[in-house]
Design a protein that fits this description.
Length: about 250
């Protein structure tokens, strides 16, 4: 699975393997804890007995990105599946083999009718959201895509959750271990070739250590050389598409 991810979107196979194992951990977590999480509760309010009950919401449309092509679908789906909801996955066009593999493994796990992968054209996504059987949408992606899906979800009165981009600060105080801070900051910025929404997008450094920290970052950067993402020693693979690379170049 990690090799397919490396071949399709350039993630180093070691990181891809960690991603797959994280999916298994999430599935295991909900398998072990969902019964307690979703169990009924009883309590009293002003002398009256009150209880809560969790019922399935219904079929949910997941619109997922390329940067974590197996983790994002499983992160979004595993809890919902345990809650009795049906998952309709519209994956990114950048990783079609990953989408096929997810479809195959969920079918093999007995979820043939509870987890379906669909391949609509962009212009057909509205008709999927509009389908009366779909009760909610979940999107992870760009702000532009989030605005579009949120507006369509509102148009058809569907529940909607979006996880969009970030501009996360990496803050280095005067008493920091400069070498360790540089190591962590560079690893966070270059993970998945920078294609991470919660990556360190900007560095805020105490004025007294700016030069020392900058020098440490420069040395750390030298350790990241571009190489074949399907090899075990790769730390920095290609970006997931020519269009993304061209955008960075501009």
């Amino acid at each position: 699975m990690a090799t397919i991810i490396a071949e399709e979107m350039g993630k180093p196979v070691t990181l891809g393997r960690m991603e797959v194992l994280k999916c298994a951990a999430a599935c295991r977590y909900f398998a072990e804890h969902a019964e307690k999480m979703l169990g009924p509760t009883e309590f009293e309010v002003d002398g009256a007995k009150v209880y809560t009950r969790h019922d399935p919401t219904g079929p949910l449309l997941l619109i997922m990105p390329f940067n974590f092509p197996i983790w994002m679908p499983f992160k979004s789906a595993s809890g919902h599946l345990m809650a009795g909801n049906t998952i309709i996955l519209k994956h990114t066009e950048r990783t079609p083999r990953v989408a096929e593999a997810i479809d195959a493994m969920t079918t093999e796990a007995g979820l043939e009718h509870e987890f379906k992968v669909i391949y609509p054209k962009v212009e057909d996504v509205e008709s999927v959201i509009a389908n009366p059987k779909i009760v909610g949408t979940s999107l992870t992606g760009s702000v532009g895509a989030g605005k579009l899906v949120a507006s369509l979800s509102g148009k058809y009165m569907k529940k909607s959750v979006s996880e969009l981009g970030g501009s996360d600060p990496f803050i280095v105080l005067a008493d920091a271990n400069i070498k360790e801070a540089a190591k962590a900051g560079v690893a966070n910025r270059l993970m998945n070739t920078g294609q991470v929404c919660i990556s360190s997008k900007r560095f805020i450094v105490d004025e007294s250590i700016v030069q020392d920290f900058t020098d440490a970052v420069m040395e750390e950067m030298k350790l990241y050389e571009y190489s074949d993402p399907t090899t075990e020693e790769c730390k920095l693979g290609p970006m997931a598409g020519d269009d993304l690379a061209d955008n960075i170049e501009r």
